[in-house]
Each structure stands twice: as structure tokens, then as C-alpha cells.
Design goal:
The structure is a single chain. Helices cover 33% and strands 27% of the residues. The protein is α/β, with parallel strands linked by helices and 226 residues long. The chain has one domain: P-loop containing nucleotide triphosphate hydrolases (Rossmann fold), CATH 3.40.50. A 6-stranded mixed sheet has the order 6-7-8-3-9-10, with helices on both faces. It has a 4-stranded antiparallel sheet with strand order 2-1-4-5, with helices on one face. Strand 1 (5-16) and strand 2 form a beta hairpin. Helix 3 crosses helix 4 (120-133). The longest helix is centred in the middle third of the chain and has 14 residues, at 120-133. It starts with a strand and ends with a strand.
């Protein structure tokens, strides 16, 4: 059930340059993401989709406007506070899985929970449950090099969910996968539909877009309805 905003962006702008030759990527953008909502953001290459995701996740700072996650404005936090708030309230899945190669699937998934303060036992129990739900219970001891592309991306999804975040931000999560493997990843994601975690997915993949609750198009620096 949708009941509260987990992400709120108001008047967000992003420009790059020295003031004399600026490139405006986003301008006056507004967005509200509700608890449990699944949102797809599509747009042409270079339209600013990844930039927007970085701003929503507090990985970059807007040139104008404000972003709030779970009721707190990023601009009111210092870098350490932003990092802690991200750890507890947001999960990230990128086109490249960014798993640490020297650690097992279980260790990769448990790591954010350990950073967040859980004991090793509690973090690994939570990680095991997520990997099991994503069909990876037999692969928990494998390192990323021993996993297929789809398995690595499912491990990345489990890692994003391990701290039970308010929202998971996904940047082209199936972009490096063949259609059959991408479909497996999308089916795995659906197991988390009953939960209150929101998903914001930047994508070119129409199969992802049609499985979301809502679609927004990013063009001319703003989000529009299709």
C-alpha cells in the first residue's frame, strides 16, 4: 500500500561548467516516490537519467533545488551523515554489478548490513534469506568470477535490499544481460513486490518499464508523463 513519500525532489537542477559555458542537464525537476511504488524513468541517451539517479541517492549535489529521502534533506547533512543515511535508507544496483571479487556472494550481500551495525551472524542470516529468495541458496559461497551475469546481478539486488531500505535505485540493471537472463532478473525482482520498498529504475528496457507501477519520461531536463 502506498502511504508515504520516500523520495521527494523539488525544483532540482544540475548544470556543469564554469558559469560562462554551462551545460544544463536538469532544470526545475520535481519528483515524488511513494512507499512501495515501482517507478521507471526512461529517456534518450544523454538526457540525464544517471545524473538524476545520483542526485536522488545523494551521490551528487544538485545545482538548485532539494532532495529528501525518508523525510530528511540531503543539504542538511554533512558527508558522513549522508553516507550513514544512504546505508540505512537506500539501496543501489548499477549496470555493472560492482561486487567485490575477493568476497563470496554471501559476504558481498552481508557487507552493507555489517557496515550498518549488525553482527556478523545477523548480517549473514539476513543475506542468506535474500539470496534464497532470489534463487541463489546454492551459490552463496561462490565468488563473483564463478557466477553467471544474471547471478551476479541478483547478488547485487540482494545486497541493495539487505538493510531493508526505503528505496532501491537501479541504473540500467539489465543493460549488460541477454534477453533471457534479463527476464530471469526481472522475475526475481517481482518476489519483492509485497514489501514496502520502493524501486526507481532508470532503463532503456521496455520489459522493465511495463512491469512498473508508473512511467516517467526525462526530456528537456524535466520529468513528464508518457
Amino acid at each position: 500500500m502506498l502511504d508515504a513519500p520516500v523520495i521527494s525532489a523539488r525544483g532540482v537542477g544540475k548544470r556543469y561548467g564554469d558559469g560562462r559555458q554551462d551545460i544544463v542537464v536538469l532544470s526545475g525537476l520535481d519528483l515524488t516516490v511513494m512507499s512501495g511504488e515501482w517507478l521507471a524513468i526512461v529517456g534518450a541517451s544523454g538526457s540525464g537519467k544517471s545524473t538524476l539517479l545520483n542526485l536522488l541517492g545523494g551521490l551528487d549535489v544538485p545545482s538548485a533545488g532539494d532532495v529528501a529521502v525518508s523525510g530528511r534533506l540531503f543539504r542538511d547533512m554533512n558527508e558522513r551523515e549522508r553516507s550513514l543515511w544512504r546505508n540505512q535508507n537506500l539501496g543501489f544496483v548499477f549496470q555493472m554489478h560492482h561486487l567485490l571479487p575477493e568476497f563470496s556472494a554471501l559476504e558481498n550481500v552481508a557487507m552493507p548490513a555489517r557496515i550498518g551495525g549488525l553482527t556478523k551472524f545477523a548480517a549473514e542470516e539476513r543475506a542468506k534469506d535474500l539470496l534464497d529468495r532470489l534463487g541463489l541458496s546454492e551459490r552463496i559461497s561462490h565468488r563473483p568470477a564463478a557466477l553467471s551475469g544474471g547471478e551476479r546481478q541478483r547478488v547485487a539486488i540482494a545486497r541493495a535490499l539487505v538493510n531493508e531500505p526505503a528505496c532501491v535505485l537501479m541504473d540500467e540493471p539489465t543493460g549488460n544481460l541477454d534477453p533471457a537472463t534479463a527476464d530471469q532478473v526481472l522475475e526475481a525482482m517481482q518476489t519483492f513486490r509485497p514489501y514496502k520498498t520502493a524501486f526507481v529504475v532508470v532503463t532503456h528496457d521496455p520489459d522493465i518499464a511495463q512491469r512498473m507501477d508508473r512511467l516517467q519520461i526525462l526530456q528537456s531536463g524535466r520529468l513528464e508523463n508518457p
